[in-house]
């Protein structure tokens, strides 16, 4: 059941998450703060950069990354990731993208253009749909202005990843959330398994639905006046213990953390 928590309760929960992570010997404040502010290190510089990152997000589904490999390696075959040029070069046809990659890039594995679930089919469809979407924006500044128009509240904010999930082939809601929050737009969150378990376990949410948990994380962030990215990353680290860039994995106990928080709120 969802709790009605005060500002001080919410601040205490967030503070306890930070204290919990700092109980591990190899987690110091500078390391933790670096991860909480990591979005500042990943801001795109151009629409081309944004398209490459969008395609990287698409390939992050299931085991697709192993099949597609390094998206950067496809730059010479995809017009330097320039949306307008991709649309013109391939006549807005994903099948032409597929045939060029198959013939010139020559990826490993059996490439079957008729297999709708094939990872290369999904990826090539994403190349065209993402190019069409981003071609609407004259530059990165224009795209950022578009994104920020969704910042009004949790209802308008959740609409953007929903929109991206419809516009970009292969980019579901969760991947769209991840794309936004990790590429310079820290007012978005990704309701992954750790976030959902913690928010449901503490009573900050009463749903396992990505859409509902997204809104609940935004509400919590605004209650404590914190950047949603930082809230997302803090609880994700509590759940995963994975300081990925530093090859540090701490043995966190998510369920024990939830139990301790609930005890303190009783």
The share of residues in extended strands comes to under 5%
What is the CA–CA distance across the termini?
14 Å
Oligomer: single chain
Class inferred from helices and paired strands: mainly alpha
The residue-averaged pLDDT reads 95
Tally of DSSP β-strands? 2
Give the strand order, joined by hyphens, for the main sheet: 1-2
The DSSP helix count reads: 14
Uncertain runs with pLDDT below 50, 5 residues or more?
none
Order of helices and strands: HHHHHHHHHHHHHEEH
Provide the gyration radius in Å: 20 Å
Shape: elongated
Report the major sheet: 2 strands, antiparallel
Number of domains: 2
Could you characterize what this model shows?
- By secondary structure, the chain is mostly helical.
- It has two domains: 7-40 and 187-265; 47-181.
- It is built from 14 helices and two strands; from the N terminus they run αααααααααααααββα.
- It has helices spanning 7-21, 29-36, 47-58, 64-68, 83-89, 94-105, 119-134, 140-148, 154-167, 173-181, 193-202, 210-223, 228-240, 254-265; strands spanning 242-243, 248-249.
- It has a two-stranded antiparallel ribbon.
- A hairpin with a 4-residue loop joins β1 and β2 (248-249).
- α11 runs parallel beside α14.
- The longest helix has 16 residues, at 119-134.
- It is elongated and about 60 Å long.
- The chain starts with 6 loop residues before the first helix and ends with a helix.
- The mean pLDDT is 95.
């Amino acid at each position: 059941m969802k709790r009605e928590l005060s500002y001080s309760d919410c601040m205490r929960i967030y503070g306890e998450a930070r204290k919990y992570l700092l109980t591990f010997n190899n987690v110091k404040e500078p390391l933790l703060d670096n991860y909480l502010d990591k979005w500042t290190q990943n801001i795109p510089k151009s629409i081309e950069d944004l398209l490459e990152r969008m395609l990287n997000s698409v390939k992050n589904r299931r085991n697709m990354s192993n099949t597609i490999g390094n998206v950067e390696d496809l730059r010479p075959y995809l017009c330097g990731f320039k949306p307008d040029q991709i649309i013109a070069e391939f006549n807005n046809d994903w099948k032409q993208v597929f045939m060029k990659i198959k013939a010139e890039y020559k990826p490993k594995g059996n490439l079957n253009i008729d297999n709708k679930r094939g990872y290369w089919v999904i990826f090539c469809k994403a190349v065209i749909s993402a190019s069409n979407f981003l071609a609407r924006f004259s530059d990165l500044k224009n795209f950022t202005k578009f994104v920020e128009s969704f910042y009004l509240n949790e209802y308008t904010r959740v609409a953007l990843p929903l929109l991206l999930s419809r516009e970009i082939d292969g980019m579901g809601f969760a991947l769209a959330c991840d794309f936004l929050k990790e590429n310079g737009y820290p007012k978005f969150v990704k309701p992954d398994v750790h976030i959902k378990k913690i928010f449901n376990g503490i009573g900050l949410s009463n749903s396992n639905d990505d859409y509902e948990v997204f809104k609940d994380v935004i509400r919590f962030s605004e209650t404590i006046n914190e950047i949603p990215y930082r809230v997302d990353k803090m609880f994700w680290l509590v759940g995963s213990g994975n300081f990925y860039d530093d090859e540090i994995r701490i043995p966190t106990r998510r369920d024990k953390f939830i139990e301790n928080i609930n005890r303190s709120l009783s």
